[in-house]
Amino acid sequence: MCARIGEFFNAVHAEADKHVAVFDELGVPIFRIVGYDSWYEDRKLPLVYTNCNLKALRFYKVMPTFEAHQALSMWLGAQAAPDKPIPDVPDKIMVGAKGFTKYSFRKDPQTKKKRK
Question: 92-102, pLDDT tens digit by residue?
Fold first, then answer.
């Protein structure tokens, strides 16, 4: 019996990464699908509740409280600073932006000291 339960949880963890896009699409860290609503002809649309009360769902039995807090904090932190692509800047413009000139790594001929 315990082996079958372990296999079930291993299968769930193996497929966990497949559902990450749903969280990003909805824009929430917590959602709950309750059932289906057939209010529009033959379509069955899922009833989705977002940002549910985890205590009411007794989520502490699934994941310890501190781990849930850390997971929520990490997800919200990643949403606060989404990765933006770095624009491609040509080298000539970047050299000027960094403050380099033609004589940055060699002496300017006008300021060179002459030997006697």
Answer: 888 888 887 77
